[in-house]
# Entry
Amino acid sequence: MRKRVKKNMRVLKELLYLRFHGLVVFRLDFFGPFFVDGSLFFIQLFAFEAVYSNVTTIGGWGRGEMILYIGTFSLLNAVNMTIYFFGVNGIPDKVKSGELDLYLTKPVSPLFRLTFEHMSPGSVPLILMSVCMIVYGAGHLNANSEIVRVQEEAVRQFSDSRLVGALPAERIAAYVFWVLIMEILYYEMEVLMRSVSLYLVSMARMEQIEVAGTDLCMKLPGIAFYGIYKVIFYMILPYGIMATLPVQSLIGEMNWRLGIFGVSIVLVFSVLTVVVWKRGLKHYNSASS
# Structure
């Protein structure tokens, strides 16, 4: 296991070198994403202002919580775009063209190489801007004395069943933890969606489902869903929990049942992704066959 980790780290180092070397040679490819992703971030801000300027609360969340939510989802998406999106997104094309054969013959996990070979530093500014938005949202939340009083009252009344009695540093640590495992879930969903290309000819419908799900859940937090919609966006297409759970852990709405549920969903989709990917490789018909 230790040798495998060292081997993967060496491969990752070489992939990083080759990727950044190619981007520097073609400078438009390096600087172009800075402008595109920065523009996307400001468009999201304008859309947020247009939609929520006349709304006081959504599912009990005020403006501060919503700023935290939008910033958190933007952060998850920015990390996705920086590290693994462009690599994972190319899986269907490589399956269709038979280029996946080359990855299967290499002495390294094909999914590992596909994940990290097309990292994009052009989305790094979006990560930084998302962090700034999160900090601003947290400051706006703390400045709202009414919300703070309600939260303090909730701590006193429900301290036996809620994980809200933690110190601010502990809440921040919990928030970071949930962001990390929700990023893993985001990655698993992308791999799972594109692994379907190992079984089907067309991926158009799956991509439409992914785009519709992420677009909706980027605008509405999971607490706004009820009934069948909550089942869909919490369990089947769990985009609804990706930014909701981190925010809930930060503002003191996380309880132990919700925590167990969130971790369980990540574990279930981890197993599902591994099974679908490995069985898909066995189902894959090589272009040379």
